[in-house]
Here is the input.
Amino acid sequence: MPKDISLPIDASRIEADSGAPQRLAAIDLGSNSFHLLVANYQHERLQVVARLGEKVQLAAGLDDDGRLSEEAMQRALDCLGRFAPFLSDITDANLRIVGTNALRDAHNSQAFIERAEAQLGHAIEIIAGREEARLIYLGAAHALAENGRRLIVDIGGGSTEFIIGEAFEPKALESLRMGCVTFSRRFFPDGELNEKRMRRAELAALSELANIQRPYQRLGWDDPVGSSGTIKAAASVLFAYGDTTTEGVITRSGLKKLRERLLKCKQLDKVALDGLKADRAKVFPAGIAILGAIFEAFDLSQMRYADGALREGVLYDMAGRNTAEDSRSKSLESLKRTYDVDTRQGLNVADTAERLFDQVHQAWSLSSEQGRYMQWACHVHEIGLAISHSQFHRHGAYLLEHSDLAGFSRPEQRQLAFLVRAHRRKFPLKEWQALPVAQQSVTQKLARLLRLAVLLNHSRPETAPPLPEISADSNSLTITLPASDEPTLLSTDLEQEQAFMEAAGFKLVVKQAKSDG
Here is the structure.
């Protein structure tokens, strides 16, 4: 019976499941606000320990060339400095920091990320739009007790996510490039607020929505739910003015009245409404323009607000990592089926790679979590054959880097794609050097073990072959083959591999055991 592509559950996860609560933390680096959530996870539920949020308006710091200003970066770093004391007792494995649209778009986002990582001592992951949507749905779904098919909408600072799902499973995921901060800069640049500008913003949102309007309506939903600050604020204002009798609910007629109140303000810096926090006022009209377009496009009569969003979704997703529920393993299983990957060969390569890893992981200081990426790469290393046998390692890397893989951040996908790219032929030094510096040492070691595992299974045996003796020190690998008077396929392959490694600046030593005679 074929095995799945997950590794054994970490001991820390087992301990957490045995009764002791697991302390988890997530930081959401949004385009409008940064949020910190610290919670204890136990019995599949979160108990909040600390919750902080600050309006950083990172997207407002993007100039016409798509670069974050120094002022915006400093605002963000100052905020992270205030978050840092809450992370002192959180282990690295239980903390995730995710960046969204502003950091996806900024041409100099890496410069900010390096400064922020140095300040926090932890890696920052930029997640793709659909992965952001998946995590938002996961957080919102846990906050909703009702069953049925839901439409979840989250209006952020730089993007708006739309998800249709049932229970904890999303059926459709989309992230559109429209948000309350970016639309404020685009349609109200000088702060003037009038009917013409409001309608232009609504029409721009409708244009974005045209791409998903029909497929979403065909799929259908029973319950439209909003999970963002814009939607929470809109519901709060409507209730404060008596435009809705139920707290947390937005009606189409109430939204029309809210729009009229905003237009009477005439200037963004004069927006002041009951129920609206002052720090949201300037971006609120743009958010309402987007929300109004959503009601128009999907012909909604009402929408209710629900707690639970990206940061909650990150925590629930993290709790499921390294277990049978790991969404990353499920994504790769789906990809294998889509591209008809040879399961037996993947299993044999993975089995060999795991035994190689066991022999050298201490000498090379490799963790089980790092080994997981090598295992995943083993199972999908031949995915590019679905396109062409020629250069299939390049095709496979492209598919892995550019596919929507639920559970993976962009850096994780790039690392996995690199391992597949590097599993045969010349070692891709240029691509390796383009990886973050912190990943380079570990990734080249994993790639070298993967390459050996593929060579050892070159003849595509029924089961994984016996393993030669292998040892490692510093940057060197030594492999000892059984005694033989004649060249073999493996010895010939290893001779070529030695040349590839030498050209890349790595060392592979191939020895042959002495014969008993």
